[in-house]
Amino acid sequence: MGIFDEIKKKLSNEFIDIIEWLDNTNDTLVHRFERYQNEIKNGAQLIVREGQMAVFINEGQLADVFSPGTYTLNTQNLPILATLKGWKYGFNSPFKAEVYFVSTRLFTDEKWGTKNPITLNDERFGFVEIRAFGTYAFKINDPGKFIKDVVGTDSNFTNYEINEHLKSLISTRFTDTIGEANLPIELYAANTNELSDTCLEVMNPEFNSVGISLEKFYIENVSMPEDLKKEIFEYSRLNKLDLDKLAKFKAAKAMEVAAANESGAAGAGMGMGMGFAMAQQMGTLFNQQTQSTTTNPTASTGATPPPLPNQPQYFYAVNGQQAGPVNYEALKGLFAGGSINAETLVWKQGMPNWASLQSVPELQNLLGSVPPPLPNN
């Protein structure tokens, strides 16, 4: 063998015979296969593994895309590239082309979040601000479009380089979707699954336009300021409470506090009587409001009911001191509590002088509310 044959053999061995990419990273989306002067030998082996696709670029133009498998590179396997180069009868010499390996696996647990608060106009709470964050998963479904529109000539395109763009896209579309949903503010956190599905449907066309498929989209949390959260909780509780029972409960608690007062028996009795009267008055008020809303349709639309008829107000004497005025129900509570008795002096407008309670005709009904003394054993 002559010296020229030896040189030719050595040079032919320098050409790359196997084209493949073993990804040892977790974030590489596109890797350009590097070789000297981009020369590929006729009959070279192309190995594309599962989760990859190989894209051939000739003079800046997309030539061929190979799915997973093993290929022997010749004119039969490269019809588009052969047409571009004008090969009519095959070729035996090396050809030049750039080969990009594109990872088509699913990239999961990608984080997203709103950089700034989203301002919403709620019917009950006015302008409010919320934030949201979650995760998403994507993969490349059109390698050729992705390389042409996003990667360009980048030799090693990573997940980090596209993530910021995707996060901005998600944040913008999420803000639009939330604003158009027009839900009450407290329902956003309770409808994250429905909102996630809607956002996925809205965002997918944007991802597909650059060769990416948005596979999953999750809203993990929708947060709001603490003062607004407390206000919503209070509103929710108030909306479910029986106001009549609440008023009676608070009146009973006030009566207990008054009864425990250390100011003496008279003060305790007066507190108990006023507590009973307050409970009765508040119970009557809420019952009237409930009945009015049920029987009168105009009550729920803001119509004002007529004023209650005037009730007489009574003054009474305790320990030589004038007290009052109180209405009949309050006076009844004082009598029942022992703060006043049948001999207590009372007066109301229209009476010429003070008189004992038992001598006032409309108050004589109170006397029957006290049981007689127990018989002597």
Automatic annotation (TrEMBL):
Residues 314-363 form the GYF domain. InterPro entries: Band_7/SPFH_dom_sf (IPR036013), GYF_2 (IPR025640), SPFH_YdjI (IPR033880). Residues 30-238 form the SPFH domain. Residues 289-303 have a biased composition (Low complexity). Pfam families: Band_7_1, GYF_2. CDD domains: SPFH_like_u1. Residues 289-314 are annotated as: Disordered. PANTHER family: FLOTILLIN BAND_7_5 DOMAIN PROTEIN, ZINC-RIBBON DOMAIN-CONTAINING PROTEIN. This is SPFH domain-containing protein. It comes from Tenacibaculum polynesiense. The lineage of its organism: Bacteria, Pseudomonadati, Bacteroidota, Flavobacteriia, Flavobacteriales.
